Amino acid sequence: MFTVASKWSLSLFAIFGGILQFLVKYKWGRTLLLNHPKLFTAGFFSHEGPSPKQIAETSFSMTFHGSGYASREEAAEVGAKPSRHLTTIIEGPEPGYVACSCFVSQAALTLLDEIQRTKKKNVCDYGVRTTGELLVKTDYLERLQAQKNGIRIKTLDGLW
């Protein structure tokens, strides 16, 4: 859900949005935006990137809710409502520079270890595969938490 704190914030949002919408239509406008991001975002974005202090003070928390069935038989019943509900909370350090590199490197190491463990020469036998498909039934989540990088994963059964 998107909310705005005040009418003043809404006014600023509309003004900046209008300016951006106008500028992105023209090549000279896009060039202006790319060359001066600090000016057009009220200082929120710049070419310098975040300072080490900003990175150290930033963190994230994401909550995922899912529902499904406890068994295939239950899922096959016509009109059956999901009987299982899970809530998973993932928390960690700065998401852009710190956590992202942890997620990607641990996914790569997990896939390499899976290739060694299963003795399969090619994990991707066909086309494009999703990360969920490749990392299911692996130790990926345990690896993330074992790295002592501040990533915490909590799964709460039955909450929603």
Structure description:
The protein has helices at residues 7-23, 27-35, 37-40, 52-57, 72-76, 95-118, 131-135, 140-146, and strands at residues 59-68, 84-93, 152-157. The protein is of the alpha+beta class and 160 residues long. Helix content is 48%, strand content 16%. The protein has a 3-stranded antiparallel β-sheet.
Compact description:
It contains eight helices and three strands.
Continuous helix count: 8
Q: How much helicity do the residues have?
A: 40-55%
How would you classify the quaternary structure? Answer: single chain
What proportion of the residues form beta strands (DSSP E)? 15-25%
The largest sheet is: 3 strands, antiparallel
Q: Could you name the ranges where pLDDT drops below 50 across 5 or more consecutive residues?
A: none
Class per helix and strand makeup: alpha+beta
Mean pLDDT, all residues: 88
How do the SSEs run, as a string of H and E? HHHHEHEHHHE
| Count of β-strands | 3
Radius of gyration, CA atoms, in whole angstroms: 22 Å
Q: How are the strands of the biggest sheet laid out side by side? A: 1-2-3
Inertia-based shape: extended
Give the N-terminus to C-terminus distance in angstroms.
Answer: 17 Å
